[in-house]
């Protein structure tokens, strides 16, 4: 994986190069902050290994923008995931990778309300600060390529399972015995349980890979 003038080039599931563009053309090194075009926030990218990376948007004050975008290659499609994350697909409906559910925290470590929206081939993270927010704020889109698959579990799914204390055995049980419905963009959703114990497993129809898991 490499970064040059704000463009990150990383491997995809097909091993072809896949690029994402950040709004800071002076960004040329990992773990080195770079200021945005107008100097109202900075970006720092961390290489997390195996093609995964974090984009840390450092938001200094209330005058900073409330939206932060990542531009994806125009020949790929972005769709929403049930857990709040984003999936990226190629033109043959192969899963290229995912952005994990968005998060943002302020200077006190308090969570700041945040979400993703899709605008064509742009992923936009919106950060909803309020009077209680203590600056600076950090927002963190986290990209995980689909090549991180272990026994049909994507790295994204394994991350969400660990956060929710959901075992592989339970996920397999939900897929075997749960109610199946059509999901978004070539996926199926398997559901089992009720209330806070409800487990939903989202599976890519073409490959059988488990993309993500939700609970509650």
Explained architecture:
The protein is 9% helix and 46% strand. The protein is mainly beta and 216 residues long. The protein folds into two domains: 2-149, Immunoglobulin-like, CATH 2.60.40; 151-215. The strands form four sheets. Strands 4, 5, 6, 8, 9, 10, 11, 14 and 15 form a nine-stranded antiparallel beta sheet that branches. Strands 1-2-3-7-13-12 form a six-stranded antiparallel beta sheet, with no helix packed on it. Strand 16 and strand 17 (153-154) form a beta hairpin. The protein is globular. The termini are far apart. The mean pLDDT is 86. It comes from Brevibacterium ravenspurgense. It holds the Pfam family DUF4258. InterPro entries: DUF4258.
List keywords for this structure.
Immunoglobulin-like; 2 domains; 9-stranded antiparallel sheet; mainly beta; 9% helix; globular; 216 residues; 6-stranded antiparallel sheet
Which parts are unreliable, with pLDDT below 50 for 5 consecutive residues or more?
none
* Portion in strands: over 45%
Distance between the termini: 36 Å
Please tell me the total number of domains: 2
Mean pLDDT: 86
Structural class determined from secondary elements: mainly beta
* Helix count, DSSP H or I runs of 4 or more residues: 2
> Major β-sheet, in short?
9 strands, antiparallel
> How many β-strand stretches?
21
CATH class assignment of the largest domain: Mainly Beta
């Amino acid at each position: 994986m490499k970064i040059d003038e704000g463009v990150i080039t990383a491997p995809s599931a097909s091993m072809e190069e896949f690029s994402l563009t950040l709004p800071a053309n002076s960004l040329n090194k990992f773990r080195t902050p770079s200021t945005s075009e107008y100097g109202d926030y900075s970006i720092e990218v961390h290489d997390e290994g195996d093609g995964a990376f974090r984009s840390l948007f450092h938001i200094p004050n209330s005058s900073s923008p409330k939206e932060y975008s990542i531009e994806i290659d125009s020949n790929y499609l972005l769709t929403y995931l049930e857990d709040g994350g984003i999936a990226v697909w190629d033109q043959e409906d192969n899963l290229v990778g995912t952005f994990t559910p968005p998060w943002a925290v302020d200077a006190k470590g308090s969570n700041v309300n945040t979400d993703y929206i899709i605008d064509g081939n742009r992923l936009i993270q919106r950060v909803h600060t309020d009077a209680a927010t203590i600056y600076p704020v950090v927002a963190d889109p986290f990209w995980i390529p689909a090549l991180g698959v272990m026994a049909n579990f994507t790295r994204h799914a394994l991350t969400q399972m660990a956060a929710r204390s959901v075992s592989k055995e339970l996920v397999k049980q939900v897929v075997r015995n749960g109610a199946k419905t059509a999901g978004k963009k070539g996926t199926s959703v398997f559901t089992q349980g009720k209330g806070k114990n409800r487990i939903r497993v989202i599976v890519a129809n073409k490959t059988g890979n488990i993309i993500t898991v939700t609970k509650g």
